[in-house]
Amino acid sequence: MQTRVKDIMRMMETHFPVSLAEEWDNIGLQLGDPEQEVHRLITALDLDREVLEQALEEKVDMIITHHPLIFKGLKKIDYSQPHHNLIKRLIKADISVYSAHTNLDSAPQGLNQYLADKLGLNEIRPLFAAISEELFKIVVYIPVSHLETVREAMAAAGAGFTGRYSDCTFNVRGTGTYRPGENTNPWRGTAGQLEMVEEYRLETVAYRSMVPAILEAMQKVHPYEEVAYDLYRLENPGQAYCPGRRGKLPTAARLGDYAARVKAILGLDHIRVVGDLQRSVENIAVISGAGASFMDKCIKQGVDLLVTGDLKYHEAKDAETAGLALIDAGHQGTERIVVPMLADLLSRQCKEQEIDISILQSSAQPCFQPV
């Protein structure tokens, strides 16, 4: 099976829906052709000259990054500018570039979930409901003979998820009527004559992003020429998404000891810590990249410690005053784990779908070097 850029995009967007991206973000296909064949790809945090050189040497067809290659609108491309020259070289080498940024941060199995798992947290959940996806109820009428076929197709497409439960549906038996018109091809019945059929009314719920795929799957296996279904927008709160996570350590730890563990787990040369190193911490929040703007959320929820990056002096003083401990593991330090994370995810997906492509990881050196 030949893989194309659009196939890799579909894999990424299944796990990291584009609807989760912030309005100011620029995600998705940055450069290239969705129809381009992909034999080799590489995952990276950023796309810089070092990553490009590796991509050229390895003869890759696609680069997947966390930080977008093109973040702000370009009014011109001046090859004398380093970033613009990078774009020129990518185009010349026929390399497609795809980025997943804030949608990858907030997704249920995204970067912050991965970071929280890696740092040993239990009972992990969103720090707060930054985004709450709309819920819909789908009601469809199905002849008795096709109930399971339609139900299974809808569930496989994403219908019926309630919390940690799947395949959640309700059905009740009744009688449906219809009168086929001229030039129709009814599943059962004759044009002009009223038909009465034993049917099930099947109800299930779905998140907005999944509705189109569910309806498509339903109509593909439903026997009726014209499928009778209803779609209702619900007021029930849907799944919450947030770039931050909070959880608990299995047992409380001294701040100094846990800081040493974070440093070792993330493979960092140094970190910065705010708070009494002897104090006990158990309730932990993690926000990859720069998470100081969420400190108030942490304080209000009784979080003991926030692990993030890019902290400024006055932000650290505010946290200290409020009694919130901080570990600044750096923007890059909390995000570079995205490189193996994406490589592993795509490798598993390709294996499941029997897709034969080579998936490489960027070997680019950290931007900040210890001296």
Enumerate the spans where pLDDT stays under 50 for 5 or more consecutive residues: none
- Number of structural units classed as domains: 3
Strands, count? 17
Helix-strand topology string: HEEHEHEHHEEEHEEHEEEHEEHEHEHHE
CATH-defined topology of the largest domain: Udp-n-acetylmuramoylalanyl-d-glutamate--2,6- Diaminopimelate Ligase, Chain: A, domain 1
What's the CATH architecture of the largest domain?
3-Layer(aba) Sandwich
Average residue pLDDT: 95
Descriptive labels:
five-stranded mixed sheet; 3 domains; about 375 residues
Describe the overall structure:
This protein folds into three domains: 5-106 and 337-361, NIF3 (NGG1p interacting factor 3)-like (Udp-n-acetylmuramoylalanyl-d-glutamate--2,6- Diaminopimelate Ligase, Chain: A, domain 1), CATH 3.40.1390.30; 111-128 and 243-332, Udp-n-acetylmuramoylalanyl-d-glutamate--2,6- Diaminopimelate Ligase, Chain: A, domain 1 (3-Layer(aba) Sandwich); 134-233, 2-Layer Sandwich (Alpha-Beta Plaits), CATH 3.30.70.120. The relative contact order is 0.15. It has helices at 5-15, 49-58, 82-92, 102-106, 111-118, 147-156, 211-221, 255-265, 295-300, 313-322, 331-335, 338-352, and strands at residues 28-31, 40-44, 62-65, 96-99, 122-126, 131-132, 135-143, 169-178, 195-207, 229-233, 240-241, 245-254, 272-274, 280-290, 305-309, 325-328, 358-361. The protein is globular. Helices cover 30% and strands 27% of the residues. By secondary structure, the protein is α/β, with parallel strands linked by helices. The model has no long low-confidence stretch (mean pLDDT 95).
